[in-house]
Model the fold of this input.
Amino acid sequence: MEGWGPSLKAMLPTVIGLARDRVHRFSKQPCETLTLLAGLGVEGDAHVGRTVQHLSRIAKDPTVPNLRQVHLIHAELFDELAEKGFAIAPGQLGENVTTRGIDLLGLPRGARLRLGQDALIEVTGLRNPCRQIDGLAKGLMAAVVDRADDGRPIRKCGVMAIVIAAGDVHTGDRVSLASLPLEHQPLDVV
Done:
């Protein structure tokens, strides 16, 4: 099938970037491999844990389950931002996994994704972008939030997930839809 445009592999949903950081800061450090730990999150990341690890959430109630163990962003957002003059690389918006070729924002709550051979995650909701984004580039916050016709915000800064099955994830690994819930529940902020 050579010569028929993009290769089949290029069209398949793929992990194009990985990042983690042991310290709570906005951007994460790029890496080639992540180990996902069932019920906990990303090994070596500041947000790993069964209960909330985001500092503002710990201050409110440290016993709440951690629904933000893994943060995923679609690279198509970076393409859109580049058209608006922003040069964003994987990990800079605080995500652990950058994908290409899958509509993360269109998934329902409870959708399960296989990352690589073994890791299985379940989407819990949308990431709510915060004003820290403007610290990376002035005006970036406005660029990652659109408005629907009825005025509701459309948050484009990725999705959050929990780890169902452990496994290593490598840059270049496939992303596949493992299952969908029986009832479609749209994503909301977690």
